[in-house]
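The following record pairs a protein chain with its ligand, oxa(dethia)-CoA.
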Amino acid sequence: MNQPSPTAPRYARITGTGSYLPPRRLSNADMTALLAERGVETSDEWIVERTGIRARHFAAAGVCSSDLAVHACRHALEAAGRSADDVDLIIVATSTPDMVFPSTACFLQHKLGISGCPAFDLQAVCAGFVYALTVADAMVRAGSARCALVVGAEVFSRILDFNDRGTCVLFGDGAGAVVLEASDEPGIVATDLHADGRHSGILCVPGTVSGGQVLGDPLLKMDGQAVFKLAVGVLESAARAVLEKSGRSEADIDWLIPHQANIRIMQGTARKLKLPLERVVVTVHEHGNTSAASVPLALDAAVRAGRVKKGETLLLEGVGGGFTWGAVLVDF
Ligand code: UT7
């Protein structure tokens, strides 16, 4: 990365948000019917009680992560008052790329009708957006970019095992994006990222491409209880870390926007941070778990609903396979 130039901005600021959900919405009743055809039993009651999820969206056959991302980016650029030609960096967080390579970010760049700027994918599963925002923040503050698109885009429906009721009812497809610009005003105020590869086996897609075929199982595997326990602990520690780095306290947080995996994890995190539930942005009921897309989807939904407003302080948090986790504190 470049050395900070004397003219490098002090901050990177989110100037626009956007998101996109594919039109096909499946309620829990739809999922129950779909699984019944395979002899797999589930129910709206179980899914709502254990997760808070009521519906998710699935992309149509042939629709890729970059197709969802391009809609989210156009909405974010419009909200920022920018055009694609202003963009000088694209980072896409995804675990469901269009291809092994080129990167989904390169496809997205082309679909936006631009060329030349750096574009790359970042793989940190459900913590991907928080990772991507942290990297983009560092690049903007270093003077390497002035107007970045930071995106989370996923088609998790492609990697679900519809014979495993413990996972296939949880996930959905979608994309969210922010425009991150150089600014002398905050801005992203603190970031905190972590990984612990010892836990790689509790949430993974263990397949790989080799010798012209897929080796191993290319479908999602999860030890839900192990992930649940780790998630609650690390979301609290990452939140405390960004507060300490920025010299702020829980009372300064206007909105907690956590990864949308399970309402019970979000409630647990809010309790530990002594935040009332009304201050937590929740979209898991309508989106399911969209992995790297979940935080920017939730952020955009809250902005467009007029809940999250300019000048408020947001705590964004991600946690996922790897094991990976992190937090970003933002003055919006
Ligand atoms: O995005 C990355 C982060 N991911 C997460 O944060 C996920 C974290 N984990 C979770 O959210 C929860 O662990 C789950 C929602 C995945 C599971 O909830 P749980 O309360 O831990 O349930 P469980 O896995 O202990 O299963 C309890 C019972 C089992 O039946 P028995 O063995 O008690 O008879 C399961 O077979 O629920 C059964 N079950 C289901 N029943 C109906 C599991 N899935 C289903 C289902 N419908 N879809």
